[in-house]
């Protein structure tokens, strides 16, 4: 009796939209392990599968003959849900949007400059989907909002360089509100006194907020 053919190696299998969602989650696990664990169970995958998806993604990105980012996303996610002209300052570009089943109200957006170069890749609110009500820093809970939503709610903000290419930060000043965080042994001042914050994002989705100064 002939030998059965061996199973196709995982590295040779197609990289799927599910794998891409695992890559997003792997990057977010550093800040929100519990949320990532819940999402992983929702997707029905193991920790090993998440790590393998991330390993394969990095290998694709850094391969000597790696395809461009836009071609890579099209090969994994298919045709974008929409392609919209966008102007940001003096730059004319196109915004390509793909659905992300794990977050139905979000889309993965790639901004493509003339010549086909992708210069920004992150999660944004889906067109027509209601955004969160961000009235105070207490509303900035993990995964609650995107970079642009936080920037609008707490303007003026100062963009900060993240610790990795997929991470961003926003520095801003705002009143605490009644449920805001506190600084131990700080001076007694009204709860509504402003203080400085930094919000950290991974792939454009909020991960955590830190207080960077005492109440004023």
UniProtKB/TrEMBL annotation:
The protein here is known as Uncharacterized protein
């Amino acid at each position: 009796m002939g030998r059965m053919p061996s199973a196709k190696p995982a590295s040779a299998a197609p990289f799927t939209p599910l794998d891409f969602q695992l890559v997003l989650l792997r990057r977010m696990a550093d800040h929100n392990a519990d949320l990532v664990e819940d999402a992983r169970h929702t997707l029905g995958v193991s920790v090993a599968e998440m790590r393998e998806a991330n390993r394969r993604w990095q290998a694709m990105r850094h391969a000597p003959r790696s395809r461009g980012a836009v071609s890579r996303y099209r090969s994994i996610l298919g045709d974008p849900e929409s392609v919209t002209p966008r102007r940001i300052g003096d730059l004319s570009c196109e915004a390509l949007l793909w659905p992300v089943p794990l977050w139905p109200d979000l889309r993965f957006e790639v901004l493509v400059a003339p010549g086909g170069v992708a210069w920004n890749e992150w999660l944004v609110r889906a067109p027509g989907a209601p955004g969160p009500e961000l009235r105070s820093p207490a509303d900035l809970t993990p995964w609650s909002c995107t970079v642009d939503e936080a920037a609008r709610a707490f303007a003026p903000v100062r963009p900060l360089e993240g610790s990795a290419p997929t991470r961003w930060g926003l520095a801003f000043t705002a009143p605490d509100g009644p449920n805001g965080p506190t600084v131990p042994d700080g001076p007694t001042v009204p709860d509504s006194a402003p203080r400085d914050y930094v919000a950290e994002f991974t792939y454009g989705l909020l991960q955590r907020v830190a207080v960077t100064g005492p109440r004023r």
